[in-house]
From TrEMBL:
Residue ranges of domain HTH gntR-type in the record: 18-85
The UniProt record lists the keyword Iron-sulfur: no
Pfam families with a match to the protein in the record: FCD, GntR
Protein name per the record: GntR family transcriptional regulator
InterPro entries, per database record: GntR_C (IPR011711), TF_FadR/GntR_C (IPR008920), Tscrpt_reg_HTH_GntR (IPR000524), WH-like_DNA-bd_sf (IPR036388), WH_DNA-bd_sf (IPR036390)
Keyword terms, alphabetized: DNA-binding, Transcription, Transcription regulation
Molecular-function annotations in GO: DNA binding; DNA-binding transcription factor activity
Amino acid sequence: MNAPTARLPRPPRGVRREQLSDEVAARLRADIMTGVLRPGTFIRLDETAAALGVSITPVREALRTLRGEGMVQLEPHRGHVVVPLTRADVEDIFWLQATIARELAATATERITTDEIDELDRLNDELEATVTRHDIAEIAAAEFAFHRAFNRSTGRIKLAWFLLHVARYLPGQIYAGDPQWGGSAVAIHRELIAALRRRDVDTAVALTAGEFTDGAQRLIARLDETGLWG
């Protein structure tokens, strides 16, 4: 097995088992989406638990989650194996995200308040600061905070929830680790904020969709480089 590349941060005392299972699932999902765990790889409970610094239980529960998502399958007497990830799979994931995000962007442009736009401005400044510090974890968290505030401004909580769950397949760390992506994200956010202030729906929708198009292209290029589809 190609074990995950790093241990999970030590969880605080009293952390819920479900939360730890979610963190393991997120790590394995990201490793599958970026080609670290390649199709046909068997994910061994004991090896994965040791690599991530957790017990076997959250790994078992995480694999059950990933099996429900179609990312791994259970082969009798052999264990869990990573299923093939095609270029069309990646394109479909980003298409679904972009479709939902366009609808949210149109609504946000019409409903967002001045105070909420000012908050997006502040969050984008925080993102810019994290990009300057080159802290990958901080960049990913700041980008997430910006889009969460943007989506919440729509008032369409269920639709935003669907986008959040599809976004689980977006391996944010590979984008946060790219200095060019960070600078581009800050610049696009500035354009988006300007479009929101002038209630320019078409521009806000186009900028939002463009982020997902760019994300798909970057991930597909990375997977091409790893020879995943060679």
